Amino acid sequence: MGKNVLIIGASGEIGSAIASQLGKEGYSLLLHYHQNEKAIEALQSELPRDTILDIIKADLARAEGIKSFVSGIYYPIDSIVFASGVAYYGLFQDTPENIMDEIISIHVKAPFSIIKEILPEMIKKKSGKIILISSIWGEVGASHEVLYSAVKGAQNSFVKALAKEVGPSGIVVNAVSPGFIDTKMNPLTAEDKDILIDDIPLNRPGTPQEVANAVGFLLSEKAAYIHGEILRITGGWN
User: Fold this and answer.
1) Chain-centre distance for alpha carbon 92
2) Alpha helices in 96-207, H assignment, sequence order
């Protein structure tokens, strides 16, 4: 299998960890980001110069941003990892419409549209890997994160259904479902974090690197027969 990996959301803490991990494993990377240019610059300084094939800036919360992104892909894609995400914490009934549109676009419309564009070439080659970074909330749901839980549930259903459709064409589709990962995206107070950690059998949050390790495994030949799965990285928390 080829080595060109497109990482959506490479500037986030999990996305950056995935990019760093895959770069060290010898993959050639195409990195997407929207605003956090400093994170992309850090990856450029960390990884060998020929590791990064291209950097694409695009706002995937907007239809025109998705179209611009798709038209800006000039390299063949062997694998794609969706690590882009935004969270919203609050009562569902109070969710502003623009926030609803943004979360649905980034987590559902953008992955679906990008994969739809890339799939024909993968099918022609009869090889390719697709990985979505989902969330445990997509499986069990979370109060005050109803919309986020819903779009992650949509990703999980998409993975299971698409895997059945494209598996015969040699395309492998999976998701990684993190539990509580220690990133800036979590809106919890220190007290809330302590309460949550008490519920995790391993008694600690996960790290972006541990999510990256799972992605590296799923992209490797060691995971060749893992297909249509939602791989939990939760420390036993469910």
Assistant:
1) 24
2) 97-104, 110-125, 137-140, 146-166, 190-198
Per-residue pLDDT tens over the stretch 156-213 = 999 999 999 999 999 999 999 999 998 877 767 888 888 989 999 999 999 999 999 9
Which residue intervals of 25-62 are DSSP H helices? 37-46
Q: Kindly list the structural domains of the chain, giving each domain's residue range(s) and its CATH number in brackets, ordered by start.
A: 4-233 (3.40.50.720)
Two tokens, residue 137: 């909330």
Secondary structure of residue 40 in the 3-state scheme: helix
Contact 148, 142 (CB under 8 A): yes
Angle among Cα 90, 136, 118 to the nearest 5 degrees reads 100
- Other C-beta atoms lying within 10 Å of the C-beta of residue 7: 28
Catalytic option among 74, 88, 148, 225: 148
Amino acid at 3: K
Q: Is 75 known to be catalytic?
A: no
Angstrom distance (rounded) from CA 29 to CA 69: 15
Model confidence, pTM: 0.95
- DSSP letters of 152-164? HHHHHHHHHHHHH
Distance in angstroms (rounded) separating the CA atoms of residues 23 and 78: 15
